[in-house]
Specification:
Radius of gyration: 15 Å
CATH class: Alpha Beta
Number of domains: 1
Largest sheet: 5 strands, antiparallel
Structural class: alpha+beta
Strand content: 35-45%
CATH superfamily: Hotdog Thioesterase
Number of strands: 5
Distance between the termini: 28 Å
Order of helices and strands: EHHEEEEH
Shape: globular
Length: 125
């Protein structure tokens, strides 16, 4: 594994009706839902580190500290940048930021833990 602070990844997606607060039940408006934004942030962090993990390993989210700063309408493109800031054994810490055409929509931190998939799943079955 070559996980080290400073690596980053940028992903882009278009906000769809499935991403809306109305669809998530977290509001009654057709804008990007906070849970959808957080999911996109987690996805970006996962995709950043997954290619660097040994076969049979993955990561799971353990902490999210996010500020949702502005509404993003359906149909607009958003971009997420995830930056690995700390590696402490199997604990990975990230800074994340989501922007749309009008600027920063959300920011915060996210923590993930590296797990052996087989061992992890055997503990929850």
């Amino acid at each position: 594994m070559d996980l080290h602070p400073g690596i980053e990844l940028k992903l882009t997606k278009t906000v769809t009706p499935n991403d809306s607060a109305k669809n998530y039940g977290s509001g009654m408006v057709d804008v990007l839902a906070t849970p959808a934004m957080i999911g996109f942030m987690e996805q970006t962090c996962l995709e950043l580190v997954l290619p660097l993990l040994e076969q049979g390993y993955n990561t799971v989210g353990t902490e999210v500290n996010i500020k949702h700063m502005k509404a993003t309408p359906i149909g607009q493109q958003i971009e997420c940048i995830a930056r690995l800031t700390k590696v402490d054994g199997r604990i990975l810490k990230f800074e994340v930021e989501v922007t749309d055409s009008a600027g920063k929509a959300g920011e915060g931190t996210h923590t993930r833990a590296i797990v052996n998939i087989e061992k992890f799943m055997s503990k929850i079955e």
